[in-house]
Write a structure and sequence with these properties.
alpha+beta; Sufe protein. Chain: A; three-stranded antiparallel sheet
Length: 129
């Protein structure tokens, strides 16, 4: 999937490296857990997890947000896949912002949205078991 953006919007190359062809973008049938959050900016984020033996073995996220939101979702998904639930809780918005390097102040909430949605999906799983 490629990000649809007006020609007047110029995103940093590092952001587009994550947002243009995200490996984890998509929805999932029959996940172990899932979550949805609508951010204050109006962007929506969904996370889907397949968990076995307390390890997240597959992660998908879905958003129709801006390139910053897509990049944040991809970073969170990459950092959660193959990781134990307890270690996944160490993923923070600051970590996402540090990895992406080029998120302007008015888009840092995208990292919070992505991490919060992941945490909500983990909570969904823990409430099911």
């Amino acid at each position: 999937m490629s990000v649809n953006r007006p020609e007047t919007t110029k995103y940093p190359d590092r952001i587009m490296a994550f947002a243009d062809n995200p490996k984890h973008l998509g929805r999932m049938n029959d996940p172990s857990a899932g979550a949805f959050i609508k951010g204050l900016c109006g962007d929506e984020m969904e996370f889907y997890l397949v968990i076995k033996n307390d390890i997240i073995i597959e992660v998908k996220f879905y958003t129709e947000g801006c390139a910053y939101t897509i990049a944040c979702g991809e970073v969170v998904a990459r950092n959660a896949e193959g990781v134990s639930l307890i270690d996944t809780l160490a993923i923070s918005p600051k970590q996402v912002i540090d990895i992406l390097c080029e998120i302007p102040q008015d888009h840092k909430h995208c990292a919070i949205l992505a991490v919060s949605t992941l945490y909500r999906a983990i909570a969904d799983y823990l409430l099911r078991i």
